[in-house]
Amino acid sequence: MAVGDREWLLGLGMAVEDRGRLWGPGMIAGDRERERGGPGTGPGVSPGGSGRAQPPPGAARPRDIPPLYESWSGSNLNINDVLGNYSLTLIDALDTLAVMGNSSEFQKAVKLVIDTVSFDKDSTVQVFEATIRVLGSLLSAHIIITDSKQPFGDMTIKDYDNELLHLAHDLAVRLLPAFENTKTGIPYPRVNLKKGVPPDSHNETCTAGAGSLLVEFGILSRLLGDSTFEWVARRAVKALWSLRSNNTGLLGNVVNIQTGHWVGKQSGLGAGSDSFYEYLLKSYILFGEKEDLEMFNAAYQNIQNHLRRGREACNEGEGDPPLYVNVNMYTGQLMNTWIDSLQAFFPGLQVLIGDVEDAICLHAFYYAIWKRYGALPERYNWQLQAPDVPFYPLRPELVESTYLLYQATKNPFYLHVGMDILQSLEKYTKAKCGYATLHHVVEKTKEDRMESFFLSETCKYLYLLFDEENPVHKSGNKFMFTTEGHIVSVDERFRNSLWEDILPGEEESSQKSKPTELKAANFSSNCNRVPDERRYLLPLKSNYMRQIDRMVGLI
Ligand code: DMJ
User: Fold this and answer.
1) Which member of 46, 239, 275, 544 lies 3.0 to 4.6 Å from 483 by CB, making a disulfide possible if both were Cys?
2) 397 is a catalytic site residue
3) CA angle, corner 101, sides to 98 and 106, nearest 5?
4) Compositionally biased, Gly residues: which spans (predicted)?
């Protein structure tokens, strides 16, 4: 963390502590930056956001709708064009049925997909959403069906002839035009499944949308023995990586795919960026490619250096609790005073690399917000202690981190968190035929919309949190979850890339004999170092818990 930033944060904390609240209303960050002669004058300094319309993956908003902060007035803006007219929810939920051990429903759903789903449609879809929700689920279900060990019970399909793999292949081929005619190799954000890239297509895409395709495309390539898919996805990751700032090493959130210029200079862990970091690590976990880990380690270090504010250690010392903020990718200066709900995935990622102590702290912050509203607002302004964007589309990120933290610590606190989340979902989102997006987390108004990730992720992680005996935990197999929560076995067959000679950067990447260490920068702890005696205590000292509760206006 830069010394100046630390001073800024501590200074701000002290200024508002006088009124008994940390980060309370009052002087906003931009004012303070200006007062200190810092930039702080760019877009997004005022509460409400960077103001550049970024279409983050998963953030439910069409690209051509104006930025939320400008036009949020209670109208229905959280509509997205992810549906694709291809039975999205049915497909996205397939492996949830397997994880729940419901073989009859799994078999029924798979047959329905085989019999009815076709991608030969005049339908324009987001490459990212189609990849993580549809391609990922088809591949996951295919792997479950063909797994000789059948860890989830009998999930075989009579006369199965790799139909799901064929469907996945067909879809991926239809997505490939997104990678053509792009000068940087970074893909277009949308394609028409029948006609390719629409003529009026945007040349701008977000980092997560373009750079989080490698897990699914890599699995497909390795199952088919056809390098094309992994090649294009890997080229996109490398192109984005090469555009990072020389100064901070950070990436922005929106880029022009022809010029390579950053249109959105915000660097953060939430919308527009989240799964890019997640997939650097997960690609390494699955494929064992050294270059993915090297990029992840460097990215993690840069995140710690420039995005993390607050005291150094989570569970000791003075100062504000750690928080990851949105900064300008070139200067590291704060861009706004909100965090978004998508960022709640990050503690889960930290668990995967063993930075459990830091994960505990960030998770506690998000849980405090949940406790206040019974949901997570899409954007929460930590300065104003209020939602900036008040909808909650049943997102999974907090549950996902809760589940992974429970696996790492076995602290029953996380079961309590899960129960709390479950009860809020039942109380505020349950509808006649499913669960509904909350239009407004304060007013608890609902929308007629249930995102497909509610079944593929939110329900799956909640179920697994409480199902200690689940084969995911007990079968002795190793599993990984894709960014959409699809389960994939960490399998030897995904570690063989027989076509290294044609992958970009093959010289460096082929040195698999020298394993690279997984390094968490600013490593305060790892899972082995969470002592047993802390298992039945609060994961975070109660004074720090109270501090966080105060900071979100809970007490
Ligand atoms: C999911 O579609 C994926 O987790 C994605 O990476 C971003 N978030 C949404 C759910 O919130």
Assistant:
1) 275
2) yes
3) 45
4) 38-51
From first to last of its 555 residues, what are the pLDDT tens digits of the chain?
A: 333 333 333 223 322 222 222 333 332 333 333 333 332 222 222 222 333 333 333 443 332 323 333 333 334 445 556 788 899 999 999 999 999 999 999 999 999 999 999 999 999 999 999 999 999 999 999 999 999 999 999 999 999 999 999 999 999 999 999 999 999 999 999 999 999 999 999 899 999 999 999 999 999 999 999 999 999 999 999 999 999 999 999 999 999 999 999 999 999 999 999 999 999 999 999 999 999 999 999 999 999 999 999 999 999 999 999 999 999 999 999 999 999 999 999 999 999 999 999 999 999 999 999 999 999 999 999 999 999 999 999 999 999 999 999 999 999 999 999 999 999 999 999 999 999 999 999 999 999 999 999 999 999 999 999 999 999 999 888 999 999 999 999 988 898 775 555 555 554 444 444 556 666 544 444 555 567 777 788 999 999 999 999 999 999
With CA atoms as reference, report the closest residue to 117 among 97, 135, 103.
135
Q: Is 483 annotated as a binding residue?
A: yes
Candidates 5, 289, 291, 378; catalytic one:
378
Dihedral, CA of residue 534, residue 539, residue 544 and residue 550, to nearest 10: -150
Cα 275 to averaged position of ligand 1 atoms, centre (Å): 8
**How many A from CA of 484 to the centre of ligand 1?**
6
Candidate of 88, 213, 345 to mutate for ligand 1, largest count of ligand atoms within 8 Å of Cβ? 345
Contact assessment for residue 257 and residue 204, using Cβ atoms and an 8 Å cutoff: yes
Q: Is 453 in the pocket of ligand 1 (CB under 6 A)?
A: yes
Q: 484: Cβ below 6 Å to ligand 1?
A: yes
Query: In angstroms, what is the span from residue 124 Cα to ligand 1's centroid?
Result: 19
| Cα distance between residue 506 and residue 178, in whole Å | 23
* Annotation says 129 is catalytic: yes
Amino acid of residue 483: T
Whether 395 lines ligand 1, by a CB cut-off of 6 Å, is yes
The secondary structure of residue 226, as a DSSP letter, is: -
Q: What torsion do the CA atoms of 25, 26, 28, 34 make, to the nearest 10 degrees?
A: -170
Our answer on whether the CB atom of 49 is closer than 6 Å to any ligand 1 atom is: no
Q: What crossing angle do the helices spanning 397-409 and 346-353 adopt, rounded to 10°?
A: 30
